[in-house]
Amino acid sequence: MSYKRKKAAALKYDTGYEAPIVTAAGVGALADKIIEKADENKVPIVYNKELADLLLNVDIGSSIPEELYEVVAEVINYVIDIDDNINKESNKK
C-alpha cells in the first residue's frame, strides 16, 4: 500500500504580470498550512493533483513555465467565475 502525501501550491496573478507567480508550494504538513492559510483568507482552493505536481517543480517567486499557461488560465477563469457568482448572489440580498 502506498501513502500519498498532500500537495499544494499557491499562485498570484495580476494583470501587470507576464505570467502567474508561484508564491508557495509544498507537500505534507506544508501543504496543509498552505491550504489552511488560503481557507482563512477566503482564497478559492482548486483541487488538481496533476497541476500541483507540476507547480512543485517551479521555484517560489518564479513565473509559471509557458507549458502551464493554458491549464493555469483555465483555473484562473474558473476562480473568476466562482467570484462573479458569489458577488451576484450577495448583491441579490
From TrEMBL:
GO cellular component, one term: plasma membrane
Coiled coil spans: none
UniProtKB keywords: Cell projection, Cilium, Flagellum
GO BP terms, alphabetized: protein secretion
The keyword Lipid biosynthesis belongs to this UniProt entry's keyword annotation: no
Pfam families with a match to the protein in the record: Bac_export_2
PANTHER family: FLAGELLAR BIOSYNTHETIC PROTEIN FLHB
Name assigned to this protein: Flagellar protein FhlB
Native source organism of the sequence: Clostridium pasteurianum DSM 525 = ATCC 6013
